[in-house]
Amino acid sequence: VFNQPRATFQFLLANQVTQQDPVAVGIMVRAFLKSMQQRFYAAEIAGLGYGLSSDEYGLVLAVSGYAQRGGALLLDLARAFAKWEPDARTFEMAKEAQIKSYKNWKMNRPDSHASYFQKLLIEPEKISVPNKLKQAESIQLADIVQIK
């Protein structure tokens, strides 16, 4: 917009734990992002965006926005993640959000259900949503601290 230089940075933090315990990693990602909302609020107002997500290869740290500020935000975000220690309140909020997400899975569109079941048939090592829900209900803060 208005010929502003924009950039997107995505860095993969390769780690096998995302394959071994994707439910706990998902809760950890939610907890981290929730705990960083206030810290990076000014960056969002300034037109920068940030995120942390997980995939089968590891964690993806992403920053987007104005090119001259993106690198500084990425560095701040990486430092914040390295020093971050999950607290009980944020963990519980993230866990409840993850559980709610699994419970609401039934409300997804039929084509996403078809795609999901196709992946389960093709990749038997994938964890089903009902099993993810059971795992999420049993995860404790200590599990997240151990992953981190």
UniProtKB/TrEMBL annotation:
Single GO MF descriptor: metal ion binding
Residue ranges annotated for the Peptidase M16 middle/third domain, each copy included: 2-134
Origin superkingdom: Eukaryota
Keywords of the record: Metal-binding
This protein's record includes keyword Metal-binding: yes
Signal peptide positions on this chain: none
Keyword Metal-binding (UniProt): yes
Protein name (record): Peptidase M16 middle/third domain-containing protein
Species of origin: Heterosigma akashiwo (Chromophytic alga)
